[in-house]
Design goal:
By secondary structure, this protein is an alpha+beta fold. The chain is built from 16 helices and 16 strands. It is an enzyme of class 3 (hydrolase).
C-alpha cells in the first residue's frame, strides 16, 4: 500500500458522515435533522495550571478528522453539509502558545463545508433548527456542553448516534487503512530498534525508551496504548505495565507496543530471546504460537465466523502442547473440557482502528463458555475491517495452578513436564490484518521468523 501518497489527501470526514446518516436511516426511515458532536475540552490538571494530556474524542474525529480541542461540529443530514466550529483567537493565550488555527486554515485542512468559531454554535443551531420542520437533533449523552441549546429542534435523539458511529467505524476506507499502515510502518522501525538493543539492555525501561524515541523521531508522538516490555516470567502477565524490571538471566522479552498515527492505532507483539538464541523450551512454544497465527490468518476472509478462527487457534495449541507432553490424553476431551484455556486464556484478537480495541466487536463477557468469554469480536468479519491476530501460550502460575488442583483439568496436564516451561513466561505474536473478499492483507511488516529475529539481535 502506498500509504504516503494516500495520506496526502484529506481525511474523508464527509464520507463518514454520510455512512452514519445511512445507518440512522436504516433504523429510522426518512430520518431528518442534524448530527451534533463535540471534541474533548481542554481540562487543567488538578492543583496545576497545565492541561491534562489531550486525547481527541473518536466520535468527533470520525466526522471531522480534526484533532483540535474545544470544538463542535454539526452535519445537516438533508443538505449533506458539515460545519466545524473552532475556538476563536484568545489574545491572552496567544502570548503563551502562539496563534491557533484560523478558520481559513481549518477549511483548507479538513473535509468540511464551512468553518465558524465556537461563539457561533448556538446561533447556528437555532437558525438550522428553525428552518427545518419536524427535525431531530442527534447527539451523544453526556457529550453536550451545558451552554449548548437545541431549542429550535422539534425532537432530540440521544440514543442512536453513538451506535451509528461505532458500527460505521468497523469497515475502514482506503484513507483509514493508510493511517493504520503508516502507524505499522513507524512501529516496525521501533520494534527492530529494540531487537538491535535487547542483548545489551540491563532493564526493561531502556527498551521502552528506545521504542518511544524511535516513534517520536519518525513523527508519531503518541502511542496507541501503554506498551508492554515484559522480560522473563513477566511475559505471562497479559497486560504487564511496570516495564522497569532488570533483565539479567531471563530468557525472553515479550514486546507488545504500537505507535498511533493521527488517531489511528497499530498493535503489534513479538517475543524473542534476550541473549539472541531461543532456549529449547522457548523455541518449542514459539513454533506452536507461530503456527497458530499463520494458520488462523490463512483462514481469514469476508464472512468468516471469528469464533471459528479462535477455536482453530485452540485446536492447534492443544496439538502442540500434546506433542510436547505438557498436555496428555484425548485432544477432543481436552477441547471439550476447555483445559487449553489455562494456557491461552484471552481472545484471538480484536478490531483495530481509532482505538486499539476498536468498536463494533459485540463481545459477550458474560458467556459461560470460558473459551469464548474474553473474545472481543463475535460474529462474521466484513471486508474492510481490520482485526488483530494475536495467539499466545502462557505459563502463569496464578492461572494454571487452579487447573492443576481441579480433577476435571489436572488429568490432562503433566505437571512434571510443565515444570520445564515456567521460565518461558509467555509467547504472543500479533499482526494487524485487513479482511478482504477473498482473504486478507497483513499490514504488519515486523520480522517474526526465528531466524530473522535472532540474526538482528546477534548482528548488533
Amino acid at each position: 500500500m502506498d500509504y504516503d501518497t494516500i495520506l496526502q489527501g484529506k481525511y474523508p470526514a464527509k464520507r463518514h458522515a454520510q455512512r452514519v446518516t445511512e445507518y440512522i436511516r436504516s433504523k429510522i426511515p426518512n430520518a431528518t435533522g442534524v448530527l451534533y458532536l463535540e471534541s474533548r475540552a481542554t481540562k487543567l490538571l488538578e492543583d496545576n495550571d497545565e492541561p491534562e494530556p489531550f486525547r481527541q474524542r473518536r466520535f468527533f474525529y470520525y466526522l471531522t478528522g480534526c484533532a483540535l480541542a474545544d470544538c463542535y461540529v454539526i452535519h445537516d443530514m438533508d443538505a449533506s453539509k458539515t460545519t466545524l466550529f473552532i475556538p476563536p483567537i484568545d489574545p491572552e493565550s496567544v502570548i503563551w502558545s502562539g496563534l491557533p488555527v484560523s478558520a481559513e486554515e481549518a477549511k483548507a485542512q479538513y473535509d468540511v463545508d464551512e468553518v465558524k468559531y465556537t461563539t457561533d454554535v448556538n446561533a447556528t443551531l437555532a437558525r438550522v433548527g428553525s428552518e427545518k420542520s419536524n427535525a431531530t437533533i442527534y447527539a451523544i449523552p453526556n457529550q453536550v456542553s451545558e451552554h449548548v441549546t437545541f431549542l429550535e429542534f422539534d425532537h432530540k435523539n440521544f440514543s442512536i448516534l453513538k451506535e451509528a458511529i461505532e458500527v460505521s467505524r468497523v469497515v475502514k476506507d482506503e484513507f483509514e487503512l493508510a493511517m493504520i499502515a503508516k502507524a505499522n510502518a513507524v512501529s516496525e522501525k521501533a520494534h527492530v530498534a529494540v531487537l538491535k538493543k535487547v542483548k545489551h539492555a540491563q532493564n526493561e525501561r531502556e527498551l521502552e525508551a528506545i521504542f518511544l524515541g524511535e516513534c517520536i523521531s519518525r513523527g508519531a508522538r503518541h502511542q496507541a496504548y501503554h506498551g508492554i516490555f515484559a522480560s522473563g516470567r513477566s511475559a505471562a502477565t497479559l497486560h504487564y505495565v511496570h516495564n522497569n524490571a532488570p533483565m539479567a538471566d531471563k530468557l525472553n522479552l515479550l514486546l507488545d507496543s504500537g505507535a498511533e498515527w493521527d488517531c489511528y492505532a497499530s498493535d503489534i507483539t513479538r517475543t524473542f530471546p534476550i541473549n539472541g538464541k531461543f532456549s529449547k523450551e522457548s523455541r518449542e512454544i514459539y513454533d506452536i504460537v507461530l503456527k497458530m497465527q499463520l494458520e488462523c490468518i490463512a483462514a481469514l476472509k469476508e464472512g468468516v465466523l471469528w469464533d471459528d478462527v479462535h477455536l482453530l487457534a485452540h485446536k492447534i495449541a492443544i496439538d502442540g502442547l500434546l506433542e510436547l507432553g505438557i498436555l496428555k490424553g484425548d485432544k477432543e476431551e481436552i477441547l471439550a473440557n476447555r483445559t487449553s484455556v489455562a494456557f491461552f486464556p484471552h481472545g484471538l484478537g480484536h478490531y483495530l482502528g481509532m482505538d486499539t480495541h476498536d468498536t463494533g466487536g459485540n463481545p459477550r463477557y458474560d458467556d459461560p463458555d470460558t473459551m469464548f468469554r474474553y473474545l472481543r469480536v463475535r460474529g462474521t468479519l466484513p471486508a474492510g475491517s481490520v482485526i488483530t491476530v494475536e495467539p499466545g501460550i502462557y505459563f502463569c502460575n496464578f492461572i494454571i495452578e487452579p487447573y492443576l488442583r481441579d480433577e476435571k483439568h489436572s488429568k490432562y496436564i503433566d505437571a512434571s513436564v510443565l515444570e520445564k516451561y515456567w521460565d518461558v513466561g509467555g509467547v504472543r505474536i500479533e499482526d494487524n490484518i485487513v479482511i478482504t473478499k477473498e482473504g486478507s492483507e497483513n499490514l504488519t511488516t515486523v520480522v517474526k521468523t526465528v531466524e530473522d529475529m535472532e540474526q538482528i539481535i546477534n548482528s548488533s
